[in-house]
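Anyone have C-alpha cells for RNA methyltransferase? Sequence:
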Amino acid sequence: MEKINSTQNAKIKYWKKLQTKKGRKKENKYLLEGWHLVKEALMVDAKIEYLLVTNDFRYFDDIINTEIEQVEISSEVSLYLADTSTPQGIYAVVEMEENRQLSIDNLAGGWLMLDGVQDPGNIGTMVRTADAAGLTGVIFGEGSADSHHPKVLRSMQGSQFHIQLVNADLMEVATLFKENHIPIYGSELNEDARSYREIPATANFGLIMGNEGNGMRNDLLNTTDANLYIPIKGRAESLNVAIAAGVLMFQLKA
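Reply: yep, here.
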C-alpha cells in the first residue's frame, strides 16, 4: 500500500482540488469523506478510484480486502483533505455518475425538483426525505447548490446512492411532464393557492420547491397544474423549505 505523509504531495494536492466545484467539473470526480458515506458507496459499487485511509482508521479491517486501490495517509494529510473539523480518517475518490437525460421512458414515479435551492443542509434533507418517501429522484435546476458539494454530500447521508439525482432545465422538464400528462405541482406561500390536502396521492408526479428566500420563479409557477399551499396554524410566517417539501412529498406519493 502506498503511503503519503506530506500535504505537498502532488496526488494530495490533486485530490484536494476535488473539494471545489471547478476541480470536480474538470476531473469529473469528487471526494467523499467519512465512513458512513464511503460504506454506502462501497455497498452500491460506486466507481471508486482510490480509498484514502489513516493507519488508525477505526474500521480498517472492513476495507482491507477490497480490490480498490488504497493509499495510507497521515493524520496531517487527513486534516488537509477534510471538509470537517474532526475527520474520521477515510476518504474515497469517486467518479461522477453520468447525468441522466430525462425522457418518457424514465419519468415513472415521483420527482422532486429544486428551483434555486441553495442551502446544503436543506438540499441534503430534501434528498433524504425524497428517498424516505419513495420518490424516484431529485432534479437540480438552475441556481441550486452543486449536488457534489461536500456539505451537500454529508447532509444527504447516502441517500444519493438510493435515488436518481439529475441536473436539468426545469422549464424543459415541466414541458416534458405536461406533454406526457404527468401532473406537476409547484409550492407557493399564498393562501389563494390550493391546499395541499386537496391533492390526491398518485404514483407519478413532479413537485417543484423554490428558493429559500424568493420561492419559485414566476415562469415555473405559471407552468404547473396547481401550486400548493400548506396552511399555517400557528404564528410562524412560513415553513423551512425542506420541511415543506417533506410534508408535500409524503402527501403526494401513493
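The longest helix spans residues 120-133.
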